[in-house]
Structure formats: C-alpha cells, structure tokens
Automatic annotation (TrEMBL), chain B:
InterPro entries: ABC_transp_permease, BCAA_transport_permease. It is found in: Cell membrane. Its main location: membrane. It comes from the Bacteria. GO terms for biological process: amino acid transport. This is Inner-membrane translocator. The chain crosses the membrane at residues 12-34, 46-63, 103-122, 154-174, 205-229, 235-262, 283-301. It is a multi-pass membrane protein. PANTHER family: AMINO ACID ABC TRANSPORTER PERMEASE PROTEIN, BRANCHED-CHAIN AMINO ACID TRANSPORT SYSTEM PERMEASE PROTEIN LIVH. GO terms for cellular component: plasma membrane.
Length: 234, 308
C-alpha cells in the first residue's frame, strides 16, 4: 500500500531523517516507535506532503506521491491524523468533520460517513455544534480521528493518538484503531506508548536518531532485549 | 431638551449608517489578515480604484453607482487575485531578513495605484451627481406627532442596507460552503488545512480577491454620498486598519462591531467637538483600543462565551 524508499529529510540545513525505508502492506497495522526527536512525526509529515524528501521516493499503491501537490493526496486515499490533533479550533465539530471530506467520493458520502463517525464517537454527536477548541482533550482526539475517517481513506496515519490522554481513553482510542483496520483500512501509527502499540500492531519499525535500527513483528519486538531496555523500562 | 435629544439621535443614526459602510471595509481587511497573516496596507487604495471604476461608468455611460456593484467588485476580485498571484506570492517564497516584506509590498502597491490614478485622472475632486442625492425621509412623515425630527438620507440608507445584505451574503458563504469553510480552515491552521486537501495557495488567492471585492463594494456604496480623489485611498486604509485593530485582529464579527463603533464615535466627535475633529476621534479610539482593549471587541465576545 505504502512504500517509502531511502528518503532523506532536512529542515533547512539540518538533516533529521537519514536513508529511511519502510513499507506498509494492505490491511496491516504498522507502527513506528522511537524516542522524542527521533523523527517519527517528520516522516509522517513527509508522507503527507507537508515536507518534501531531499532524496528517495514515496509510493502509494505503486504511484509516486512525493512529487504531487499535497492537497491531492487525500483524494488518493491517504488520511493523516496529525500530532496534537490540529483541529480548526473556532469551527464546530460538524464543520471540522466537513473539512475531512472536501474531495472526491468522500464529499458525496459526507452525510453517511458523518453518521458513522457519530456512531463510533457518540460524544461528538452530542457536541456537534460546539466549537472544537472548547472540547476536552479526549474529545478533541476523537474528533481528529473522526475527521481522518471522513476522507474514506485506504491508508490512515495516526501521529501520537494517545498523547496527553488518560489511560482509559488510550484504550478506547486503540480499540477504535483496531476497528478501523477490521473495516479494511490500512494503518500506520507513530507512538511513544510503546507497549500498547507493539501489542496492537502487526509489524513495527524502531526509529533512532533519524534512522531505522530495527524492524519486526510487534510481538517479537516486545520480547527484544534492546527494545525492552530502551523503551519498556524493564 | 427635545432639541438636544434630536441632535443626539440624528448623530447616532448618521454614525450607524457610516459604521455599516466602515464595517464592510474592515471585513475585507480582516479576511485577508486572517488567511495571509499580513495587514493589507493597500486596502483603501483598492477602494479608490473601485470608486474610479464606478465614477467613470457613471460619467461615461450613465450607469448608476449601485448598478456598478455588479461590475466593479468582480473586476476588483480579479485584480486582487492578480496582485496576490503575481506580487505577494513571489515575495512570500523569498526568505529574507525582514519578516514583513509582504506588508511593505502592499504599501508599495498602494503608492503605485495612487500615483497612477493621479497621472490618469488628475487630483481633482470628483463625485457622481446622482439625482436622488438629496432625497431624504423624515420621521415626521411617518409619525406626525413625533417630538423629535430625524431625517434619513436616501442614498445613505440604501448604501447601509446594501452593505448589510453583502455582509449577510459573505457570512453565508463563509459558514455554509466548502470553499468558505476552507478559507476559515486555512486561517486557523494552514498545515492542517493542507492535510485535509485544501489547496492553500488557491485559498490565499481567492481570499485576496474576496477582500478586494468587498472593499470595492464599499467603494460603490460610498461614491453616491462621498467625493473621490486619488489620495483618498490612504485615508481609508487607515480607517480599515483602525477597525481591524478595534475588532480584534482576524475576527469578522469583531470587524463589524469595530466598524459600527468607529462610525458612531466619528459622528459624535463631528457633532459635539467639531467637524474637523472627526479624524482625531479616529486616532483617540485607535490608541484607546490598543491600551485598554488590546484583543479588540473579539476578546470581549470570547470572554462572554466562556463564562456562559
């Protein structure tokens, strides 16, 4: 579904991603774990076109996407639930959801998808006219995910969906991600919440200082001595 | 006693009518500020250009300035888009020591427009002598026994009503169409909008066009009741700037209230202090807003919403 080949990414003169390659197969949940500043979000932002790779290629279903206009990616089936939610704070819950379905088929299906999102997150339905900036952190994350789902994506990328949430909410969010995959979407997730993420995903990559240092099945990485020592604190 | 009340009410009415037109000027600048994060210091000059369009259409073809509302704003929409595409965008792309190159650019565009207008049209004062210019309604026509007499000039009333209609249409566009929502989304979070599939570059161009079209509407509404000369632009740029600060940078509702406040305040200053003091009133309220209400009217609206 998604194939990233040997990308370098830099902010001005400072290179932060070095020769990173990974792939996400159809229907998989693939995780990328790593410490603060390892470059996880940078990779996400590069895939979704906000940043451009200095070299390398990014292919979505075999088609290069690092050269196309970033605003067309959502139509190609790539949705991005960005770090720190990045909602439109002065727009209502419903308007935020509308923003997720601006193009293509998603626009025609808007009303139906919206009802589905409201059935996944009933809390959002209760607050549909409220400005999104006034929601609680958990509700904002639900809305960010809902907004991503509105695009009817083939691949959905979650950047730190558990950031700043209470443990019980984290469990809810992870359950939603599982549901999303069961409905046929492919998932790429970036997380610092390593234990739960590795338990959730099919495969994972470990990113350290802008380079991929390890990869494997989630369950295998959970038992890996290096991962245990560096990320699980045992 | 009644005489004083009459003067006060008449001043208030005049202020509100003026404020409605000011609001329209302020909204255009506020929209551009919201999306582009720059103060468009050529706003008044764009209005001046629109007024010349309306003036020449009237003088050469006898087209009523209110009919020019259908001609001048679309032209200025295209002109605004061209400015954004050909001049502002290239400057945005250049990284420079001065972070506000675009603002300086807009000042330059304003100077060019003003001087080109002077060369082409001379600096004579012009106006459109429409035949309904001095028509007015009187309160005593409706209510014979009224203790206070208030008059309402026809062109002022029509201009005010049209500016309300245009504002409502704009509100509908921003609140209920995908393009309008995309413009608001771009103003609130540019990167997130991009991820959602908003063509951010196109939204910038449309917004500059829309802001120009709005101030062009204001120009068409102003010309039947005002006069026109090339340097008039800078005066209205300042007015738009004051309204934008007063309204709270980037808030449309704030700009409407800011426009009304400024209109009433100027009208009151003109009546109770002296005709020539109205521009001073403008500066007083500007400084007062910066000192006592730095967030503008929008900050008051926000506190009320939160405490509810």
């Amino acid at each position: 579904m998604l194939e990233v080949r040997n990308i370098d990414v830099a902010y001005g003169d400072v290179q932060v991603i070095w020769d990173v390659s990974f792939r996400v197969g159809q229907g998989e949940i693939v995780a990328m774990i790593g410490a603060n500043g390892a470059g996880k979000s940078t990779i996400m932002r590069t895939v979704s076109g906000v940043l451009r790779p200095g070299k390398g290629q990014i292919l979505l279903a075999g088609e290069p996407i690092h050269t196309v206009e970033p605003y067309t990616l959502i139509e190609k089936g790539l949705a991005h639930v960005p770090e720190a939610r990045r909602l439109f704070p002065e727009m209502s819950v419903e308007e935020n959801l509308d923003m997720g379905s601006l193009r293509g088929r998603a626009r025609k299906e808007r009303a139906r998808t919206k009802e589905r999102v409201f059935s996944i997150f009933p809390r959002l339905s209760e607050r549909r006219r409220q400005a999104s900036g006034t929601l609680s952190g958990g509700e904002q994350q639900m809305l960010a995910i809902g907004r991503g789902l509105m695009a009817l994506p083939r691949l959905i990328m979650f950047d730190e969906p558990s950031l700043g949430l209470a443990p019980i909410l984290v469990q809810d969010i992870f359950n939603v991600i599982r549901t999303v995959r069961d409905e046929g979407m492919t998932v790429l997730i970036v997380e610092q919440n390593v234990r739960q993420t590795l338990a959730l995903c099919d495969r994972a990559y470990v990113l350290e200082n802008g380079r991929i240092t390890q990869e494997g099945a989630g369950a295998d990485l959970l038992r890996d001595p290096h991962v245990k020592a560096a990320y699980l604190g045992v | 006693m009644w005489v004083q009340a009459e003067v006060f009410l008449q001043t208030l009415v005049a202020g509100i009518l003026l404020g409605g037109l000011y609001a329209l000027i302020g909204i255009g600048m506020t929209l551009i500020l919201g999306v582009m994060k720059i103060i468009n210091l050529t706003h008044g000059q764009l209005m001046m250009v629109a007024m010349y369009i309306a003036f020449w259409l009237f003088t050469l073809f006898g087209i009523d300035p209110y009919v020019s509302l259908l001609i001048a704003p679309p032209l200025m929409f295209a002109f605004g888009m061209l400015i954004q595409k050909a001049l502002v965008n290239p400057v945005l792309r250049v990284e420079s020591i001065l972070p506000h190159n675009q603002v300086i650019l807009t000042v330059g565009i304003g100077l060019v427009l003003q001087n080109v207008a002077t060369i082409l049209f001379t600096s004579d004062y012009r106006s459109t002598p429409v035949d309904y210019a001095s028509t007015a309604f009187y309160l005593s026509d409706l209510w014979a026994g009224t203790p206070v007499e208030i008059s309402l000039s026809l062109p002022w009333a029509v201009s005010f009503l049209l500016s309300v209609v245009i504002t409502v249409l704009l509100w509908f566009f921003l609140a209920h169409t995908d393009t309008g929502k995309s413009i608001r989304a771009t103003a609130q979070d540019k990167d997130a909008a991009l991820i959602m599939g908003v063509n951010v570059g196109l939204m910038r161009v449309i917004t500059f066009g829309l802001g120009s079209a709005l101030v062009a509407c204001a120009g068409c509404l102003f010309i039947p009741i005002y006069y026109l000369f090339p340097a008039l632009g800078s005066q209205f740029t300042l007015i738009a700037f004051v309204i934008t600060i007063l309204g709270g940078l980037g808030s449309t509702l704030g700009a409407i209230l800011g426009g009304l406040i400024l209109g009433v305040f100027e009208s009151m200053t003109a009546t109770y202090v002296g005709m020539g003091w109205a521009p001073v009133g403008r500066f007083v309220i500007f400084v007062a807003a910066l000192v006592f209400l730095p967030g503008g009217v929008a900050s008051l609206l926000k506190t009320r919403k939160l405490s509810k």
